[in-house]
Amino acid sequence: MATTKAREDIKNDLKTLKEDLKTGAREETARLKEKAAEAKAR
After folding, report:
1. Which end of the chain has less Cβ packing within 10 Å, N or C?
2. How far apart are CA 8 and CA 2, in angstroms?
3. Mean pLDDT score, 30-38
4. How far apart are CA 13 and CA 38, in angstroms?
5. Does the predicted TM-score (pTM) go above 0.85?
6. Tens digits of per-residue pLDDT, 3-28?
7. Which whole number is the average pLDDT over 28-42?
8. Burial letters for 7-35: b for 16+ Cβ neighbours within 10 Å, e otherwise?
9. How far is residue 4's CA from residue 9's CA, in Å, rounded to a whole number?
10. Alpha helices, DSSP H only, in the chain?
11. What is the DSSP secondary structure assignment for residue 18, as one 8-state letter?
């Protein structure tokens, strides 16, 4: 069934996007903490 396969593909793509967003948010948080620490050190 093509529609079932397409739905599964979409679900998997959404899961991947969610994971990418989480990773991006973690990286951004770490970067901002670093900047804050640098600013505090001045």
Report:
1. C
2. 10
3. 95
4. 37
5. no
6. 999 999 999 999 999 999 999 999 99
7. 94
8. eeeeeeeeeeeeeeeeeeeeeeeeeeeee
9. 9
10. 2-41
11. H
- Tokens of residue 36, six digits: 């804050």
Which two tokens mark 42? Answer: 């001045």
| Cα(17)–Cα(37) distance, integer angstroms | 30
What's the chain's length in residues?
Answer: 42
Q: Which residue has the tokens 């050190």?
A: 41
State the DSSP code for 42: -
List phi, psi (to 5°) of 30: -60, -40
